[in-house]
């Protein structure tokens, strides 16, 4: 597994236990994976036993270059303008950071959140203030918080490079523990057209000038059946949506993105993930 390029995998279930992530990913020809360390649609602080933790690290030693990314719960909204809801979000995400620290997972992806019931500037301020509290936990646990770009639906923040940069800029300190995760479906439905080689270069040139590649730590590779700028987040298989295969071929062969884990969040089961990964590996020129 250590010699496999590019770095491509999928969001994987942990139903077989944390230690099974590596073997389950290998079965679909993946050398990276994204997971939920707890149920993403329920509040609560999942606990892991010493035996499961030890088994995980024993298995991890066999795959020293394998990269694991965690995705935070969908319920967490650190942009909330309601103090009680934001406090719950901070508590839940603190527990997530500690779980990542336990398993030495370096990255956790977080949706910036929604300012429902308030104003945009209030939501931005709430995120920055929340991150100011959470950064210290991230530092203690050796974890980097990755803000994921959104499709721009409703009052959700983080749909543009400028907005992500604004959030990072307004976070008081600890920026070395902040980064971004860019989702190709979200990019497209937010209005960034990756189709065509010139458009592709323009998007990444824009990203470089506003955020910079040093902040880019993870990519979510998802095609979509929704139109450019539709603000409708709907993932579909690689090359089978409106984006088509070419943008993914460019990403897979882009030297600027070579060391970045590329995670599929496409529909279906492991067999579907294996098919999508095989297609991405097929267009990789090495």
Describe this protein's structure.
- The protein has 286 residues and is α/β, with parallel strands linked by helices.
- The chain has one domain (8-282): Alpha-Beta Barrel (TIM Barrel).
- It has 9 helices and 10 strands.
- It has helices at residues 21-27, 50-60, 83-102, 120-141, 161-170, 184-189, 197-210, 246-252, 270-282, and strands at residues 8-11, 32-35, 67-71, 107-110, 144-148, 178-183, 216-221, 223-224, 235-236, 262-264.
- The strands form 2 sheets. It has an 8-stranded parallel barrel, surrounded by 4 helices. A two-stranded antiparallel sheet has the order 8-9.
- It is globular and about 50 Å long.
- It starts with 7 loop residues before the first strand and ends with a helix.
Write the layout of secondary structure elements.
Elements: E1 8-11, H1 21-27, E2 32-35, H2 50-60, E3 67-71, H3 83-102, E4 107-110, H4 120-141, E5 144-148, H5 161-170, E6 178-183, H6 184-189, H7 197-210, E7 216-221, E8 223-224, E9 235-236, H8 246-252, E10 262-264, H9 270-282
Parallel strand pairs: 1-2, 1-10, 2-3, 3-4, 4-5, 5-6, 6-7, 7-10
Antiparallel strand pairs: 8-9
Helix pairs in contact: 3-4, 4-5
